[in-house]
Amino acid sequence: MNDEFYINRCIELAQKALGKTYPNPLVGSVIVHNNSIIGEGFHKKAGEPHAEINAINSIKEEDKHLIPESTIYVSLEPCAHFGKTPPCALKIVELGFKKVVIGAMDSHDKVNGKGKKIITDAGIEVISGILEDECRELNKRFFTYHEKKRPFIILKWAQSADGFMDKDFKPTQISNSLSKQFVHQIRSEEHAILVGKNTALHDNPSLTVREIEGRNPIRILIDFNLDIPESCNIYNDEAETIIFNSIKDSKDKYLKFIKIEKENSLDQILEKLYELQIQSVIIEGGRFTLQQFIDQNLWDETLIFKNPNLNLENGTKAPDFNFAPDKTENLRDTQVLFFSNHSLD
Q1: Residue of 4, 12, 48, 52 marked active site
Q2: pLDDT tens digits for 12-61?
Q3: Residue 12 to residues 5, 86, 100, 137: CA-CA distances in angstroms?
């Protein structure tokens, strides 16, 4: 068995916690003795033990003596700082593993090579950069947040074959029930979801997860003049909600009002979300909000749900978005077009 095989298993394990570890990264770990896995684990939730500790704790009592002859694999550099849990790098040194294999290094300023240094300084062999691209893709939200000082941004909308988002400017069902489940799955995986005032007024969305089992994202509303009545669904107590406005700063249980200027509002919003440690956001706003992000090249991925059999003829035009999809999938009669912003590569 090779290092890539075990790091790939680390990635598989880490993915089990997608959407549950914010603001921490997704991490998986595998412990191998003589080409046999004797322990494995992943980080399940912020504040709980890290992947390496869960992997160590999973080793059977009768196999604990094998640790000094074993290799520990981890998809992300072991942490070197005291947070809600002690540093994993120190635990690895304490137990005296023979070798450590790391997928990607951690660009978080509290780690960033420090974990690897603690382990090498103790005389333990360390290899890093195994399946590095795949490990970085696993934590694209975490890396974007720490390296670009903003959340990972996903644009999402549905449109008809002739490029409209609604019929005669009234809410219109464009995609099918299967794609709705898929959207709710995505919501549960991302940290937050954002809409503008017009979407909140016209569609009265809840922006919660209802079609699947999962966590509700933090809801974000841009409403400069606070025109949205508090009777609207976005103000219910089903999820934490942030309202960017130009009138007040206040906090009440699950509602947080943040005052910003209208000029350069997107930059201010992303700066505030960074301060709040929000690592990813789906932009589900209407055309105006989406177009602002597109025009400023503030997006990492885009999902377009297209109904090729539906022509609406009149209504809100879909955003101007002139990019080729990386791939297209069919959810029955709805096409899902996936885009990545290659200008940011």
Answers
A1: 52
A2: 999 999 999 999 999 999 999 999 999 999 999 988 999 999 999 999 99
A3: 11, 24, 18, 12
